[in-house]
Amino acid sequence: MSEISLFDKIQDSSEFIRSHIDEIPNFAIQFGSGFQKMLNEIEIIQSFHFTEIPNFVPSTLSFHDPRLIIGKLHGIKLFILAGRFHHYEGYDMKQITFPIRVIKDLGIENLIITNASGGLNPDYDPGEIVLVKDHINFMPNNPLRGLQDERLGPRFPEMLHAYNEDFRSELKRLAASLSIPIKEGVYLALQGPNLETPAEYKMFHQWGADILGMSTVPEVIVANQIDLKIAVLSVVSNMGYPVEKREASSIGDILNCVEQKLPLLCKLIGNFIS
User: Fold this and answer.
1) How far is Cα 78 from Cα 24, in angstroms, rounded to an integer?
2) What is the DSSP letter of 141?
3) Cys bridge to 71: 42, 116, 136, 274, which one at CB 3.0-4.6 A?
4) Is 199 helix (H, G, I), strand (E, B) or coil?
5) Of 130, 37, 39, 34, whose CA–CA distance to 79 is shortest?
6) Which residues of 33-57 are buried (b: 16+ CB within 10 A; e: fewer)?
7) Mapping DSSP to helix (H, G, I), strand (E, B) and coil, where does residue 162 land?
8) Strand, coil or helix: what is 230?
């Protein structure tokens, strides 16, 4: 028996979700590490554990909430992917990006991705909110690799405007009007899970990266293939460069740094989607 295609798996998952909800919102948010407490600001209408949804894989991280949630923020209904999957958990790129394909198949047109990141820009400090404008992909694989299925989108998607310029302009305008400090920067994606050495931080800074992390870029690549408009907001949770700003960081330190910025991010994202 032939293996079920990725396209058929997407249909199977989206049909399950569609059969359990009344209305499909047109906006989604994907939480990164440390963002789960944003759920305190969201009116939860329905939720599905990832293991309930056909073809989703289980999260292996205690600090991610492995649920697809339908909720309201500032009175606007939206999908929340309260957790995500990572390459360092042992998952392949198609598994990591599968939820992005499913929400698009459901009819979602707009997505905000969040993450925690290490800082490489000497002008940054821990706690900076960074609006990602571009990326450098240093992961070992690509979610589009493999046999081509035109139903999934073009084989060679253009990445010139990978991060929606209208979204970025509006987020910057809103941040200024709300007196929320925000930077723009280039994100570099690594496979992890270890943090980087001082020599690596220095090299990545010289490449032109402002922040780095272990997620996001696979989802951004797929979002561009399937014509899903995206913006990415990152919180600098620790500094890696210059070396005098480097301090040993635990996952607890990283999560605490992100959580301190959640009130401002809720305010910014809530105003943006409304």
Assistant:
1) 8
2) -
3) 42
4) helix
5) 39
6) bbbbebbebbeeeeebebeebebbb
7) coil
8) strand
Q: What is the pLDDT of residues 25-35, one digit of tens each?
A: 999 999 988 88
CA 134 to CA 124: how far, in whole Å? Answer: 17
54-104 confidence digits (pLDDT tens): 999 988 887 888 999 999 998 899 999 999 999 999 999 999 999 999 999
Q: 């450098």: which residue's tokens? A: 136
Distance CA 13, CA 133 (A): 31
Q: Where are the domains positioned within the chain?
A: 6-273
Q: Are 188 and 196 in contact (CB under 8 A)?
A: no
* Angle between helix 6-18 and 93-106 (nearest 10): 50
Phi first, then psi, for residue 11 (nearest 5°) are: -60, -40
CATH fold for the domain made of 6-273: Rossmann fold (3.40.50)
| Whole-angstrom distance, CA of residue 42 vs CA of residue 37 | 10
pLDDT digits (tens, 9 = 90+) for 212-245: 999 999 999 999 999 999 999 999 999 999 888 7
In total, the chain counts a number of residues equal to 274
Helix residue spans in the chain (DSSP H): 6-18, 93-106, 165-177, 198-207, 217-225, 251-260, 262-273
User: For the whole model, what pTM was predicted?
Assistant: 0.94
Q: Cα angle at 68 between 131 and 213, to 5 degrees? A: 35
Name beta bridge partners: 231: 112
